[in-house]
Design goal:
The structure is a single chain. With 324 residues, the protein is of the alpha/beta class. The chain has 2 domains: 179 residues, Medium-chain alcohol dehydrogenases, catalytic domain (Quinone Oxidoreductase, Chain A, domain 1, Alpha-Beta Complex); 123 residues, NAD(P)-binding Rossmann-like Domain (Rossmann fold, 3-Layer(aba) Sandwich), CATH 3.40.50. The strands form 3 sheets. Strands 3, 5, 6, 7, 8, 15 and 16 form a 7-stranded mixed β-sheet that branches. A 6-stranded parallel β-sheet has the order 11-10-9-12-13-14, sandwiched between helices. It has a 3-stranded antiparallel β-sheet with strand order 2-1-4, with no helix packed on it. Helix 2 packs across helix 3 and helix 2 crosses helix 9. The longest helix has 21 residues. The model has no long low-confidence stretch (mean pLDDT 94).
Length: 324
Amino acid sequence: MICDQILIQQHGDENQLQLTQRELAAPGQGEVLLRQTAIGVNFIDTYHRSGLYPLPLPSGLGLEACGIVEAVGPGVKTLQAGDRVAYAGGTPGAYATHRIMPEAKLVNVPRDIPDELVAGTLLRGMTAQYLLKQTYPVSAGQTILVHAAAGGVGQILCQWAQGLGVRVLGTVGGAAKAELAQGWCDAVLDYTQPDWVAAVRELTAGAGVPVVYDGVGAATFLPSLDCLAPRGLLASFGNASGAVESFNLGLLAQKGSLFVTRPTLGHYTASRAALVACADDYFQALLSGLVQPTVGQRYALADAAQAHRDLAARRTTGGTVLLP
């Protein structure tokens, strides 16, 4: 089996992404061969490419895709040729026409959810699930703060939280994205403006919020601490504006005995049962209409570098997919 795949030989800018061909072996014990129909592009892919999160080289990129099982290896018990499946997380290498994957990392996809929607949102949807229901389980009637509310995770997280009866304050980086985020936030603030922290305090009658979900990183991390109620939690799950620098832990005491966590999807889906439960919860949110994400960008597999450029330049909204 000859497969087209995007590889990097060294860390660096988008020019490192090269379309190559390689031969895939037959699936081994507990593995299946996938023909991938749509591939998700996420911010973490740019971190892997640049070396912010270093990878052993040479390496593939990409953590999620949807596809069809074409062959199964020995010991595979729950899947067969023709099954429609998806994955999110694990070892990078999704930017490819075909891929060998462990059975344990794949989840079955409900018939009524399109391939592009699964590939473009599963990683983000599962991220929203663990943030909202595990990292800090929200409750109806609460007010929360979500950064990058117009982005892929933000869109899903805000819609889902509203569906759970939560009041959502969302931040964005500019007027165009503010207009977009109005569709799933109760109030939208521009974190590039100097008064956004004061606005959060005003919108919460001075009390602050119990949780901030922050996928922006350096630009919003320290100001977010001033948005929290005493004993509130800052969940920093991304670095879109750059990595968070070291800070004095004494700030957490000064600002109200605050908590900070840096969660990752892998730790919340480490077991097979946890993975399936997380994915199924997201699929049910899609099927019920509780969450209605969009796929805003589609690129050919060979144009992965342009997808990375657009993502880094904040020119994307909703999900982004590569089409083999």
